[in-house]
Amino acid sequence: MRASKFCSASLPHTGRAAMTLPAIALWLAAACTPGAAPAPAAVGSGSASVPPSGQQIFRFDTFGDEQFWTDTLHLERAIQQGVDPTTALSVGLKVDMDALPPAVVTGIQQGTIDLHAPATTLALLKLNAVVGVVGRVETMGGRDTLTRVGVTCALCHSTVDNAFARGIGHRRDGWPNGDLNVGAIVALSRALTPQQRAVYSGWGPGKYDPRFNQDGKNTPLVLPPAYGLARVANETYTADGPISYWNAYVAVTQMHGHGNFADPRLGIRIVQTPDLVTPKLAALRAYQHGLPTPAPPAGSFDAARAGRGRAVFDRTCAGCHVGGSLTDNNRGVLHAPAETAMDGAYAARTVNKRYRTTPLRGLWQHPPYFHDGSARTLADVVAHYDRVRSLNLTAEERANLVEYLKSL
User: Fold this and answer.
1) Chain segment 146-161, per-residue pLDDT in tens
2) Which residues have CB under 8 Å from 158's CB, separation 6+?
3) 158, 180, 202 - which closes a domain
């Protein structure tokens, strides 16, 4: 598969506005010659002569997980037969507008490209434009056929800024995709039992259970951000391990990549040759550590009230949200669910049986809150702690604290 942005040929000037899907396919065939540079998706094969960058791994590396999504779930058939771009956007998939040639952008704008046709989805996959999904599209019998499909880290932990339209824009790596309905996507597979399909269909947007396929229990979690991690010791709700531990766990046990992961505490030992995961963990971690916490939009909070709210925070919250990381977990502290009246069902399924104090980064960007999304707004978060921790805050103090949290 070749991506148009890596081809040296320029777009034809004439006929851009009316370019149809067959025309896009012809342009791709002409522009992306056998000598063109490979698309980033090729890093998943482990055959690249130059080690991939952390960004390439995060965005395009499947770790060979096509063996699961294609060979086991046959998701390529479901996409080929019934997933048009409108449907894909409705379940939270995102399109990288920077991967689209100008002719495609114009065609979408003018309606000459049909966003209700599964063939258009194949064209987008051919362009490497679907965030977090990598597909191999081959021409068979004169028509494009999706033969392989896999997923990457970016599926859950990237979104777009909607600069072109809702769901279509510039990539925002590290931002959790709160619109993504992973369960609904997995439920497309005809290889699932009715019971499995019911579980997956019940998760809803922005949630995922990273242990359901390990223990059969079901307590879906809110997808967390993958930015602002440089000063965070453990990037899991229950602090099972550092960021590379979690990257390996997800790549091998959730994405079903071809690699190694072992944790005797969980009774998991997966060894596969070749290991397409472990050699890439350092570069992946370095890229994630470099993703900054996004600043709150101008005018999104009251600065004066936020200043007063910080005094409330320092008095009532800073005992656990400590230091530059804003979590006492960097000091090895964990908390029993009862300490903060959290639902303990997920913690009970983990090695530590407790929750870490969540680092507070980019809170304005990723509601709902708490591991299970039980707090819809920051005001709900403050009200929860005011009640269960007997903080006795006034209405003014609660409002000021919310403004401060918006500023983080």
Assistant:
1) 999 999 999 999 999 9
2) 58, 59, 94, 131, 132, 171, 172, 173, 174, 175, 177
3) 180
